[in-house]
Write a structure and sequence with these properties.
The longest helix has 18 residues, at 104-121. The chain has five helices and four strands, in the order ααβββαβαα. The chain has a single domain (7-121), classed as VSR Endonuclease (Endonuclease, Chain A), CATH 3.40.960. The protein has a four-stranded mixed beta sheet, with helices on both faces. It is an alpha+beta fold.
Length: 122
Amino acid sequence: MFYGAKAITFQAAKTLRHNETEAEKCLWERLNKKQLGYKFRRQHPIKIFIADFYCHQLKLVIEVDGGIHLLPDQREYDIGREEEMEQFDIRIIRFTNKEVLGNIEKVIEGIKASITAIEAAR
């Protein structure tokens, strides 16, 4: 479930859980307690990375991106990160902070569509 994550990654994840963004808080309110039928974890270590939200049963990562993710260097890093996670058959979906805070229902519908697609592919 952690794909070889080291202790330092777990410590960093713990710190992030205590310093979540408003968008992460908003989305967590809709993902926790199996509200979508699956258990999600927040700030979950995967290898050397930390996923904003992760459902192991679905092998689904949900990322909530701030403006920094629009910068070319960060975008390139994100692409590499996704490629590494995809080696574990993990699917990644992304939403912006603005999407989460501005239209949480649309975000939830997008997540539900991803869940349905993953279920159908099994």
